[in-house]
Amino acid sequence: MATADEPKPQTPAPGQPRPPAGTDLQSLAVQLRRMNGEINRLVHGFAGTQGLHATDVQALAAILDADEPMTPGRLREHLGLTSGAVTACVDRLESAGHIRRVRESSDRRVVHLYYASEAKVAARTYFRPLALAAGAARERLTEDELAVVTRFLAAMNEELSLLRSRGA
Q1: Is the pLDDT assigned to residue 7 strictly greater than 70?
Q2: Tens digit of each residue's pLDDT (9 = 90 or more) over 124-163
Q3: Which of 57, 82, 140, 145 counts the highest number of beta carbons within 10 A?
Q4: CA 144 to CA 138: how far, in whole Å?
Q5: By C-alpha distance, which of 102, 99, 138, 101 is closest to 122?
Q6: Taking Cα atoms as reference points, which of 26, 28, 35, 23 lies closest to residue 7?
Q7: Which of 76, 50, 48 is nearest to 63 (CA)?
Q8: Hey, which CATH number is domain 49-115, 3.40.50.1820, 1.10.10.10, 3.40.1190.20, 1.10.606.20?
Q9: Number of Cβ atoms within 10 Å of the Cβ of 79
Q10: Are 49 and 40 in contact (CB under 8 A)?
Q11: What angle do CA 21, 9, 150 make, to 5 degrees?
């Protein structure tokens, strides 16, 4: 949302090209908020059907998307929660059968979190309409356009990670 401190979109100076319709920051912000709202609606629905909190679903996504086995400590940092809150979240997810805790190292204090295979089936089934919608939207774009969209989303995620690391 725009704030009083943010500059208002300005009309280009005479002779300067206008940005293509819908590419200004305001239009991008509106579309990102709308998409975020729809995805949040789905996440809350899934959480409700599974007896979970929305934060639990965020934790599941973090575990699923991690490049290496997730640990409770890394999950705490990723979600910005206290140690106690992450422990409660992991306990709920394990009790509900969504994750497994595995001690794979010789150091028994190291715990890795894995998304349980059986739980992935429930998530895939619930989120199938989202996957179908993404596929339909994808079909409306060229490969070059998709590459730009992917670069934009990656850049946004990078910027948001920087904000998080600064405590914003």
Answers
A1: no
A2: 999 999 999 999 999 999 999 999 999 999 999 999 989 8
A3: 57
A4: 11
A5: 99
A6: 26
A7: 76
A8: 1.10.10.10
A9: 16
A10: no
A11: 50
Residues in the chain: 168
pLDDT digits (tens, 9 = 90+) for 70-107: 999 999 999 999 999 999 999 999 999 999 999 977 77
Mean pLDDT of the chain: 89
User: Three-state DSSP class for 44?
Assistant: helix
The one-letter amino acid code at 58 reads Q
- Look up residue 74 and give its two tokens: 């890394």
Alpha helices in 24-116 (DSSP H): 25-50, 54-65, 72-79, 83-95
CA distance linking residue 79 with residue 120, whole number of Å: 21
- Looking at residue 166, what is its pLDDT? 84
> What six digits make up the tokens of 72?
């409770």
Under DSSP, the state recorded for 53 is -
Spell out the residues 6+ positions from residue 68 whose beta carbon is closer than 8 angstroms to its own: none
